[in-house]
Design goal:
This protein is mainly alpha-helical. The chain has one domain. Helix content is 62%, strand content 11%. The protein has five helices and two strands, in the order αααααββ. The chain has a two-stranded antiparallel sheet with strand order 1-2. A hairpin with a 5-residue loop joins β1 and β2. The radius of gyration is 20 Å and the shape is globular.
Length: 180
């Protein structure tokens, strides 16, 4: 097989995958690009937390665990399936914003996870980001838009979820206080 034939074959495969992706998920937007980058960064920072710092809250010893890694990848694939469903809802009701709203929501979730991983590595997180995370957590807890009154003192980031041996989230979160 010649070099040109191999190059043409790979181009055909990549083009077919790209065409199928666009057919299923709709137009590729900058929001989708940002989500995919954030998903990759979250996965990599999670690997660093577990592999280098041995501080993972998802494994028993805090280190790398292949089952936890596969579950993380499965969750990311499930995220893409939810985006797929949102795109289909857009098609069904004739809109073009539901998929984008879902992508933005998942991107925010990935960004929070990246910041939490960085905090586990000891990276100082800028105060404004801590305030933003605190506000998002308060909104999620209250199911309401909170007033803009942020109490004085420390900002608490709800950074860790506890998982049982099978990788299922355990009720409650562990609070981690960040000094100003």
């Amino acid at each position: 097989m010649t070099h040109t034939a191999v190059k043409w074959g790979w181009s055909l495969v990549i083009g077919a995958i790209g065409g199928a992706w666009l057919t299923v998920f709709g137009d590729w937007t900058m929001a989708m690009t940002i989500l995919c980058i954030c998903m990759a960064l979250d996965y990599v920072t999670g690997l660093v937390v577990a592999g280098v710092f041995h501080a993972s809250q998802k494994s028993s010893g805090g280190g790398l665990d292949s089952n936890v890694g596969w579950k993380g990848l499965a969750r990311k694939v499930a995220t893409l399936f939810i985006i797929l469903v949102a795109h289909f809802v857009d098609i069904l009701i004739g809109t073009q914003y539901i998929r984008d709203a879902v992508v933005i929501a998942f991107t925010c979730n990935e960004i929070i996870s990246i910041l939490e991983n960085c905090a586990l590595m000891g990276v100082p997180i800028p105060k404004i980001l801590l305030y933003g995370i605190d506000i998002l957590h308060k909104q999620a807890k209250e199911d309401d838009i909170p007033d803009n009154d942020l109490s004085e003192g420390e900002v608490t980031v709800y950074a860790y979820k506890k998982y049982d041996d099978e990788g299922n989230p355990v009720e409650g979160t562990e609070e981690v206080a960040h000094d100003d």
